[in-house]
Amino acid sequence: MHNEKRRARLLALATALLLGSGQATVVAMASETQALLIRDAMVFDGTGRAAYPASVLVEDGRIAAIGDALQAPKGARTVNARGQALLPGLFDLHTHWTPNAVPSELPQVANLYMAAGVTTVSDFHEPPEAYAPRRQWLSSIAAPDVKFAARMSTPLGHGADWGDENTTRWVNSPESARAGVRAVAAYKPDFIKAFTDGWRYSNAADNSSMDEETLAALVDEAHKNGLKVFTHTVMVKRGKSAARAGVDVIAHSVQDGPVDQELIELMRTHGTAYAPSLAVYLPERVDGSGRTGAKPDVLRQREQNFANALHNVKTLHDAGIPVVVGTDAGMTGTPHGVSTLRELELLVDAGLTPAEALLAGTARSARALGVADRGTIEVGKRADLLLVKGQPWQRISDIRNTEQVYVAGRQVHGKGAVLPAGNRALALPAQPVAALIDDFERADGRTALDTLRVDEADGGNDRTVQVTEVVARETGGNALATQAKLSSKDSAFAAAILPLSRGSVAPVDVRAYQGVRFELRGSAPELRLEVRALGNRRFIAPLQAQSQWRTVEVPFSALQGQPPYRATAPIAQWKGDDLQQLVFSAGGAPGSKVWFEIDNVTFY
Prior knowledge:
This protein has 604 residues and is α/β, with parallel strands linked by helices. It is built from 13 helices and 30 strands. Strands 1, 2, 3, 4, 5, 14, 15 and 16 form an eight-stranded mixed sheet that branches. Strands 6, 7, 8, 9, 10, 11, 12 and 13 form an eight-stranded parallel sheet that branches. The longest helix is centred in the middle third of the chain and has 23 residues, at 296-318. It starts with a helix and ends with a strand.
């Protein structure tokens, strides 16, 4: 055992050195294996037992002992927790680490969750191509344990109204659902998020919904692959379909009316948990922005829906249905970290006791997610812990008084925490990139940079229909062809994206080059090259399409910076060391058809 522990310490140090994040990283990661004694805390252990005074010993990232008179091993760090409460780390089973959120950078979002005592988070936003690079990035910094959801919806369903099938796979039959699950399972997601309900809360036109037969096949195939299924389900009747299909968690509030006994029995029979995500439905929003500029009829509908949501949480909880914690953080008005704490308070507003709300955010969420090694303070469990001032099992607002937070025994927040330099960074270091971006000759559908090409079009129920595929050129070799029928919107477009790194996660440095060269032909009134960089920064050059092939060179100096998504942001300035994607796009009159072909895309 001594040798095993020594090897673990050496491995942690070697990993830190290889990651190259500086001295702070080595110190923080080395301390991960240091024994820790939290002395004389009031322990709320998440098992259902009343809070009790005790000390907790942590060794090698796990809880080694709990007792009244524990002695600190040689070299251990001791924390005097007298007058403080010790709780299991919190969960948030429903978040979106999206570029639309503020902040959006992975380390900054991780910091916000750790500061709130949230040590396990589910991210519903990433395309499968991004899992591996984001996991690698997370392993190099202090962060919650992040679980990734593979997204599946129907054509024109909620969640499929942006991005393409690499982000959200479209399924509309049992056969396509099974094939879709097998395809995303290859990327090793932690679970699947199925967008099954198209109701838009009586505030907008409904999306399409997934039929029960398709959902049942999706769930069955997911379970065969060891994956749980969470659903976006917001209506009583579709809650019944979701429960009958065997979903593991309904990840939104059912809010079109009161739940009935039939739904309760179905959820009980099939073991379906309930993550109401109250924070995102709060009429005034967690950040207070919800009433500003809201139309009176929309606000009244939101208030009625929210009243239904609160009522249904209490009804389901009283019926013995496991209520767990998710927020939809990253969506409008629902900031990361603090929204999780607000969710606990909203569960109490719905009628749960503070202790029951804490159980929802710890042990019950752990069970719903299927992680048996955390969620409670018990010997052998992972040492995800938070120290707070007060007694949050009596006053839930005390959960905001976070003093220290530990992830797997490593302090990540509070006095004494030493974090890697990467926790202060906005991005990974830029990596060099080869000149050849894509000549479309690989048979596996990936670029010459070994990245996955993706499509992009205007979103919504009325959206552009496009087909992008590799085609043979008359003179030999292959090219990429995009054909599209534009939607009825004035801003309709169709685009082909060439990511410059796997999942567009790490930026690349192109300062050694002067511009982009490619071969082009096509027919579209509006054709352009767009270069995307960190922080939603975009640089655009118009292109002229002709029916015959021609070679085009676009110097970087010809690219015009655009405002990012947020209109108040300044015009983007070219840096050259933070690029993520090249995008070729075509637009034109609403309802018209456009096409273009590209080949031999390189930096020069």
